[in-house]
Amino acid sequence: RQEQYAALRDIASVTKDGVEIALHMNAGLTVDVPFVRDTGARSIGLFRTELQFMLANRFPRMKDQYLFYKTVLDAVPDRPVTFRTLDIGSDKILPYMATIEEENPALGWRAIRIGLDRPGLLRMQLRAMLKAAGGRDLRIMFPMVANVAEFDLAKAIALRELDLIRRHGHATPTTLDLGAMVEVPALLWELDQLAEHADFLSVGSNDLVQYLYAADRDNTRVAKRYDNLSVPVLRALKTILEAGAKAGKPVTLCGEMGGRPLEAMALLALGYRSLSMSPSSIGPVKAMILSLDMEQATAFLASLMANNDGQPSLRENLRQFASAQ
Ligand code: PEP
Ligand code: MG
Asked: What are the transmembrane regions (predicted)?
């Protein structure tokens, strides 16, 4: 099977009826980076920077961060990398940072919330990224943004750092795209403004679904209780896509559901054309794409959603459709 998928590496990911899908790869460590080539991924669509911080035994200095980002960028000179700023807190703990006792860590002080409250840390990370990407394109996105104001604050910090390194005479990135992860449900009702202010949106479906259903993604008692392939989740995902399209901003999905062929099929049928996933998912998802009739899938899902009468999951229907492809 692995060999079969490896053979797909250089084949374009295009559906039977000619719709091209952009497949990107999720990464977090330098050892992941060579998989971009092995899998034929178009770019690194999500680089989880916190993994480097979790492996270190003290908070990495600016220089260490700079060297790390530069190593990643140098390893893929021909493809874009979308770095995500630190997403710590909740399930991602830094052993050397004093742990804060929180009743509900998933709803607690984490990710961009820490970055905005401790702007020194965020600034240092942004500066390291901006310097590492001197002379090339750079994409940065912020995790766990809950409202447009938080995105604006993070963006202003990034632009100030850009200005500072320019004034200090350092090489700056050729282009800088700043995006927001869409993973906190409140954003669903502020998408138009968000899409205006951001250069791109990236859906973090792992967290978005956890918060939509109020069901801990790591608690086995409840994690499987609700399905991603349900009308509420699919409607939410469609809304995000539509807001991006209206503002002319690209939307990618980088949560785990994009890497599962059946879920990926549903996402394409909803209108998604760009997915970022773990390296091992790219082959199986591409195999699904090659056998998919997009027009049929789109019509099938639209009618399933329109005719749904409270079924908690569309999985079985979608599975039947997929096996007939
Ligand atoms: C997500 O929430 O879907 C996501 C991509 O980020 P993480 O899994 O790192 O929280
Ligand atoms: Mg997340």
From this structure: none
